[in-house]
Amino acid sequence: MVGKVVLRDIRNDVGWRLRRYRAERARARSKATFIGITGSSGKSTATSLLGHILAGHGTVYTQVLANTFKALVRALYKRMNRAGKLDYVVFEAGAFEPGSIRGMAEMLKPDVSIVTMVRLEHVGKFRTPDAVAQEKRALVDALRSDGIAVLNCDDPFVLGMASGVKCRIATFGQADNADYRVSDVHAAYPELLRFSLHWRGGALDVHAPFPGEQFWLPTAAAIATALELGVPPEKVAARLASFEPLPNRCKVLTVDSGPQFIVDTAKAPWHSIGITLDMMRKASTARKRIVLGQISDYLGSSRKYGTAYGIARDIADEVIYTGDNAHRSRASKADHDSGRFLELRTPKEVSDHIKQTAVPGELILLKSSSNLHLERVALAWTHDVRCWIPSCGKKESCQDCGLYEVPFEEHGSFLAIRKLERRKRRFGRLLGGLGVRRRS
User: Fold this and answer.
1) How many angstroms separate the CA atoms of 174 and 180, rounded?
2) Which of 56, 111, 134, 384 is the most exposed place for a label (fewest CB within 10 A)?
3) 314 in the same domain as 438
4) Where a domain ends, among 192, 212, 241?
């Protein structure tokens, strides 16, 4: 048995080395412009938006959400070889622990590096914003002298990455000295994001399909990079109009004759809670409800849940806490008794309550880290959701998993049957290609 385990480990190691070698060769052969994007928030939106804009200007491969070293290796050695000739490769790089971005940067060898912002994240690994900034700087340090660093000049941690860099620096932000200066930012749902962008070569009135003002940052990062790469402003504006925001990142779901949801369930670091709640404060709808789940990336006690409740209470007609920390709201007895605050321990309870009490046109914010998969509360209005396990352990969203209409305990057998059916179809196509008729 020990020999089999050792042999399997050797095979896995050899396989991994081979995949890395093939990925390095694919990168070396490619003539595409490689763009790496990182940041504590906004990188996924910036990546998907930039990829969408560039797709109107050339051929693009965009890798978003899957932002690890293994994902980069897989993209380079496997998916890029199938994509044909590419003009651009846009890759989202996530920082999970010290050294995680450096390896990606050395393999990606970016021509352009973008940093959106630095905040405290993955607290157990980094502990301080300085440590986070040092990690993300590795993507900028990997640039050659003919590269471009696109940096948020409103963030001192990000702007500090320009120090000692020999390549071109292009800054964006609301500061007067930004190369791409943002002004007149406005969003008050149902009014979507708009702002003005000014740079040395011109100006652009930006209209983007986001419900909150905070999205000016990844939008400006993507636009500034596209303009730096020679995309005409009018093409940028046209591509913005056709962009579809990422699921679960303040994506709006409107139900006919039912409620409206803002689904923000991909992550919930403490630094983003106030920003998201402020988006709800500015929304102009008659009735508002806020559902809060798991909050992450904070130091100290869990009093943050009480702080968040105090803010949410002043905004919404009803605040619902769910998950293992639902009891930490510190809501008053009067709020409990009046129904102003509800503690519902599972997403299924939240869904049932909202189904029973929904008011047409009301706005409901779903805000949580991804572990609770609160997006199911909104999906239940358009699909027959039957997977309601409180925490399934899957990192992917319910939309990516695709099994939310199957009870969790049946996922294994469902996948096995689906795999068997796919094999049968492939075998049938193979027989058909050989001119063999299958007997029924």
Assistant:
1) 8
2) 384
3) no
4) 241
Domain limits at 430?
406-440
In a domain, 181, yes or no: yes
Same domain for 357 and 337?
yes
| Position 388 in a domain | yes
Matching residue, tokens 């930004």: 178
Say how many domains are in the chain: 3
Residue partners of 373: CB distance under 8 A and separation at least 6: 265, 347, 391, 392, 394, 397, 398
pTM: 0.88
Per-residue pLDDT of the chain (440 residues; tens, 9 = 90+): 555 444 455 555 677 788 888 888 888 888 899 999 998 889 999 999 999 999 999 999 998 887 788 888 888 887 766 556 889 999 988 877 777 888 888 989 999 999 998 886 666 666 788 888 888 899 999 999 999 999 999 999 999 999 888 899 999 999 999 999 999 999 999 999 999 999 998 999 999 999 999 999 999 999 999 999 999 999 999 999 999 999 999 999 999 999 999 999 998 888 889 999 999 999 999 899 999 999 886 766 678 899 999 999 999 999 999 988 888 888 899 999 998 999 999 999 999 999 999 999 999 999 999 999 999 999 999 999 999 998 888 888 999 899 999 999 999 898 888 888 888 877 777 766 666 555 54
In 3D space, the residue among 110, 114, 188 whose CA is nearest the CA of residue 151 turns out to be: 114
